[in-house]
Amino acid sequence: MDRIAFAYMGGEEFSDVFFEVYDRVRRYFRDVGLAIVPIYVGRIPLPPGTLARVETSEGYVKMYSFEAVVEALYGKLVEMKESVHDESLTKIFGLTTYPVGSRDPHLDFYKKYLGLQVTVANYHVMVLSMKPFQSENRFLFVERVFKGVLHEIGHLYGLDHCRNRCVMNPPSDVQEWDSRPPTYCNSCLKKLRDREELKPMPRFPL
Ligand SMILES: [Zn+2]
Ligand SMILES: [Zn+2]
Known about the structure:
The protein is an alpha/beta fold. The chain has 6 helices and 8 strands, in the order βαβββαββαββααα. β3 and β4 form a beta hairpin. Its cofactor is Zn(2+).
């Protein structure tokens, strides 16, 4: 079994969407029989100083600094290790309200950005921004973010991009993203199921 800490980062505006996505991720992995268990670890408020105004081809966009977000998530894992002496929690997923980018104004982060992950020491930090997926249609908003979370978790467990009808098939725009089904394809699922740490626990002690 593998646990992934989930943190909500930013202001209150998308917290309902965050929890719907979180519940859906929990149910999804249970339903497909993968022993991946999300654990909610709280909201991490980001100080206003971490929000930068960055010029992109779509005009000025507000973004969190990549370094600040990664540091806050890494800090959360270290804090949990020290407070509850739990060393088995080594993966954390942060869902941010605003996009995340480096302060370099020459790169078009906003448009290309889907999610990112970095390894710091033995810890794995994943980040996905909710804002680029925003829609008036709440179901669609939740679904888009949910698929983004599956995509990043897929990478975490070694999946590459895929050409099938699959969340591992990266889109060129949000319309294409909406056409992806909210699941891994059979071939990606098989790769995940073959991983020893993701095999479901027996229901009864043997
Ligand atoms: Zn990807
Ligand atoms: Zn696939």
